[in-house]
Amino acid sequence: MSMAFLGDLMTSVADRGRALIGFERFIGQRNRPIERLCEDLLSGRGEASGMALAQGVLDAWERLDRPGRQAFFAMLQERFGPDHERLSKAIDAYRQEPSAAAIAALHLASEPRRQELLRRLNLAPGGTHVLVRMREALFEAMETDPDLIAVDSDFRHLFGSWFNRGFLVLRRIDWRSPANVLEKIIRYEAVHEIQGWDDLRRRLEPADRRCFAFFHPQLVDEPLIFVEVALTGEIPRSIGEVLSGEREVLSAQSATTAVFYSISNCQEGLRGISFGNFLIKQVAEDLKRELPGLDTFVTLSPVPGFARWLNGIVADPGEFVLTNEERSELGRPAVETISLDEAARARRDKLLGQMAAQYLLRARTASGRVIDPVARFHLGNGARLERINVGGNMSARGLRESHGVMVNYRYDLDDIETNHEAFATRNTVVASSGVRKLLRPAAV
Fold this sequence. Notes:
Oligomer: single chain
Strand content: 5-15%
Domain Malonyl-CoA decarboxylase C-terminal: 166-412
CATH class of the largest domain: Mainly Alpha
Protein name: MCD, Malonyl-CoA decarboxylase MCD
Domain Malonyl-CoA decarboxylase N-terminal: 80-163
GO biological process, one term: fatty acid biosynthetic process
Number of helices: 21
Structural class: alpha+beta
Pfam family, one: MCD
């Protein structure tokens, strides 16, 4: 209710600002150039008129077609960068006397004008939501004009402050949540597609299921990121056993393990703004308080880059020792392996497990980073690589991306910080002994 009141108040102020400046005449009945509106917004000082101008800029932007938006971003880059005359004077002043005041003046002078423009646009009613969608459009524009990365760095800088963890609200999503929120959970699920309302109900309503999401006060009923959790008696090896409609429901109080089996970012315009690390840790702590019997917190995660990496290894083993027979086996299309007999499947599964260990523990990018993005996320958050599950996801997507392999990352609440430091400072992958035993000797 308080957010609705604040929204109504901001709209009222903006409307009054329009009246004060004769806004409809001022913009020339919607054909005043958007660049001029932006300049007027930056030069203005009144709060009411500023909100009205900000609303005018956003309204004008939303009417632009794709070429128009491309031109708008180019304008932000070319004409709303730093004030070069002011910056030059600040540099000279700093060189003459490198005082604290000179440093502060230099910092202010070096800031692109578009950052202040974005701050003022954010004052318009619903401005935050429009700016998030504006950054989505910017990603498209960057495909044809990579130099717009300078504009994106300003969006990212400001969003990093506006969507700071201190502003986020954690809410549980259940079957009684508003329908518009539930519809968005179905739409935004990015890991294991939700097959309609009945499937969603199976993920939310039973006593051994949970879903939590972060929300921002300015994006009402728009989840930023959500995590689906299964409460179980043991660490699962496959997504099939978690999502099965035939499984036996466990009472929450009987559960010993919380399984984070799907994490989905919802707002493309907030790409690169990290929420997931805070989400997992807070949900784990909240669940522990609610259910003291929980002593194990793990994920059941995809390995999205494994198949692509493995194809490269098959073509050129490099540092890995592979026999011709193994190369032939690994080169077989994953979909063909479904019909293998038991002995052949066991051999292939053992080989896949070994290669998945190589991929997660030893494979690196040219810059020395762990290749797999999901691994980087969880290891960077302080998790431990607990177990490799061959056959964990036999869906078409699972076979295509990872030959069916899934991984458990374990969040030991006492070791999270130590594991994070090892990964962040030394790029060390903390892994269980069971995973390390799968490693094959490197070629000499």
